[in-house]
């Protein structure tokens, strides 16, 4: 009778070990899935920094007439930063400057017409000496 109880108990211990191992594996898997979600949530819920106090009142944005440059310029304006907009096309620079003035009337903008790809060329040197 004693060996039967021991045999029965060892089977229970093995099953408990398997259960504990699988539970631990499941918990690690859930943690691995939850970490990116929680870190993204924390990023979304954190307060935005006061950019003017940290970096100064003015920011330079290159390529503000389209794409990421435009989005960056509009977001910085929304956060109250004054902007120096650097681009190649004067008409497009006027358009984005007007859009910023409409979206954030307190924000000042200055435009600089400059093709930065020419800066390291002889033509660019002439432009920067003006």
TrEMBL record:
Keyword Nucleotide-binding: no
Superkingdom of origin: Eukaryota
Keywords: Membrane, Oxidoreductase, Transmembrane, Transmembrane helix
InterPro entries: NAD(P)-bd_dom_sf, SDR_fam, VLCFA-Steroid_DH
Pfam families in the cross-refs: adh_short
Membrane among keywords: yes
GO molecular function: ketoreductase activity
Transmembrane portions of the chain: 16-45
GO CC entries: endoplasmic reticulum
Name this polypeptide is given: Uncharacterized protein
């Amino acid at each position: 009778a004693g060996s039967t109880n021991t045999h029965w108990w060892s089977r229970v211990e093995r099953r408990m070990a398997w259960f504990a191992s699988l539970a631990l594996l499941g918990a690690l898997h859930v943690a691995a899935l939850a970490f990116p979600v929680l870190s993204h949530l924390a990023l979304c819920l954190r307060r935005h920094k006061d950019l003017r106090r940290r970096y100064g009142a003015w920011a330079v944005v290159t390529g503000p007439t389209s794409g990421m440059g435009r989005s960056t310029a509009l977001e910085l304006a929304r956060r109250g930063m004054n902007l120096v907009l650097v681009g190649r096309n004067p008409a497009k620079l006027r358009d984005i400057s007007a859009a910023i003035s409409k979206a954030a009337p307190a924000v000042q903008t200055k435009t600089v017409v400059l093709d930065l790809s020419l800066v390291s060329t002889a033509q660019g040197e002439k432009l920067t000496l003006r």
